[in-house]
C-alpha cells in the first residue's frame, strides 16, 4: 500500500495531465469545437509528452549517466518533434515527406545537444 501512495505522490502531475488529456480528447468533438479548444488540447498534449519524456529519460539516466547533463535539451527536442508530428497529423497534413523533412532537423538537434555548453570562466582561468 505504501508503494502505491509513493507512486501517486511522485507522479501526481503526470497523472493529472493524463486525466485532463482524457477529458479533453474523449469529451470534445473536434468537428464542432472551436479552434481555441483544439489549441488547448495540443498544448495539454505537449505538456503531457514533456512530462512523459522526463520519466523516460529518468529511467535512461540510470542506465546511461552521460544523459543527465543533456536531459533537459533532449526532452525539449523530442517533445517539439513529437508535438509537430501530432499537430500535423491532427489536421490531416502529415505525410511521409513531413517525416523525412524532420530528419535533418533531428541531425542538427543532435549536434546542438552534443556541442559543449560555454563554461563561465573560473578563478583558475583568469
Return the string of H and E elements: HHHHH
Q: Strand percentage, roughly?
A: under 5%
Low-confidence stretches: 122-126
**Rg estimate, integer Å:** 19 Å
Quick synopsis:
The chain is 77% helix and 0% strand. It is mainly α.
Topology:
Elements: H1 2-10, H2 12-27, H3 35-63, H4 67-90, H5 96-114
Helix pairs in contact: 2-3, 3-4, 4-5
Report on the structure:
This protein is an all-alpha fold. 77% of the residues lie in helices and 0% in strands. It contains five helices and no strands. Helix 2 packs antiparallel against helix 3, helix 3 runs antiparallel to helix 4 and helix 4 runs antiparallel to helix 5. The protein is flat and about 50 Å long. The chain starts with a helix and ends in a 12-residue tail after the last helix. The C terminus is likely disordered.
Q: Which terms would index this structure?
A:
single chain; 126 residues; mainly alpha; 5 helices; 0% strand; flat; disordered C terminus
